[in-house]
Fold this protein.
Amino acid sequence: MRKYFFYFLAAAFITALFLMIYFSVPPRPQSAERNIVWHRVQMDGSRAGREYSDSSATAAAVQILKDCEPGLAKYKEVIGHSAGEYSNLRDQADLPLGNLVADAMRERGTKEFGVRMDVAVTNYGGIRIPMPAGPITVGDIQSMFPFDNKLVYVKISGAELQRLMEQLAKTQAFQPVSGVKVRVKDHVLKEFTVGGKAVNPKKTYNLATVDFLLQGGDQLYIGAMASDIVMSDVTVRDVMMDYVKGCEARHKKVTAYSDGRIILDNKDED
């Protein structure tokens, strides 16, 4: 009997403790619906270690950055200048920055492989941040092109090149291209020319692209369409680094533009 009475007291104590805890915690307010607006904020790494408030925590953090500055100096070297800020967002067809990268790849491919590149195709995913307006540093190019995607020369028939453009037309954002002009309506390729001429299905064309797109990158399998592939050790980062330096050597600002090479008329983008 005493044993059962002890069990009763223990159960009553635990129940009372639970009720005390339950009622002592204030009720959680009903979560109101909130609209969250995101904004891009530019961070200027070139100022690291140079400006800070009187907060000791901030000063300590800045000191860490200052200690790193000697190793970061090479990334702060200005190698060129841009005529404006060029977005990497796929918010429009014929994106100026995409055009610039594709054109630079086609030009570099011609020099690298010793044959004229008819076409170049790259991907927006390889361009990670916008090109800044004004001074362009080594670090800017490193941040824009952090991947080691290599420049590749692909020999491809006109028929396969047509099929590649048809695949690109089916995507939400037509990837950056050079040397071609396309018109797409409702994700169907309506017009396609290379160098201003209609594509010859039996002709072999020289295509500059990146190794990432050879075997499934961005759902493209350009390697399977190729009659021959020549690899290189040149990355897209190298291509753009040298392109910017070349513009600076000629006292020219890096300029990107839309020129109507890609015309999209897709209902799902209205």
User: Anything to note?
Assistant: The longest helix spans residues 2-24. The chain has a mean pLDDT of 85.
